[in-house]
Sequence to fold (104 residues):
Amino acid sequence: MAKKQSNLKNDATKAQPVEEIRIGAIKAAIWRNDGESGDRQPQVRFNVTLQRLYRTEDGRWHSTANFGRDDLLVLMKVADAAHTRVMQLIGEQREQQQQEQPAA
Fold:
């Protein structure tokens, strides 16, 4: 029983993506990673994972990082939308950092 509780606790504390972009069965998840730059300043990075969702005969949903020929154009569109959104998030982060810095 303790094993089930620890698994439930781990599921509740798992990181969630900042955003997800989905077209059909192709999905991009945008993840925020906080870190430090070389000068010890906080720095935010964003990573993207791409996956294809599919349903098995028993009705359960699964995902894979394998894409077929017919998935490639949609994959490209999802990747492009994810790139655009990451660039927007970086811009928003820079604006927020500039507002937080005291005037010289």
Q: What stands out?
A: Residues 29 and 99 are 28 Å apart (CA to CA). The first helix runs from residue 2 to 13. The radius of gyration is 18 Å.
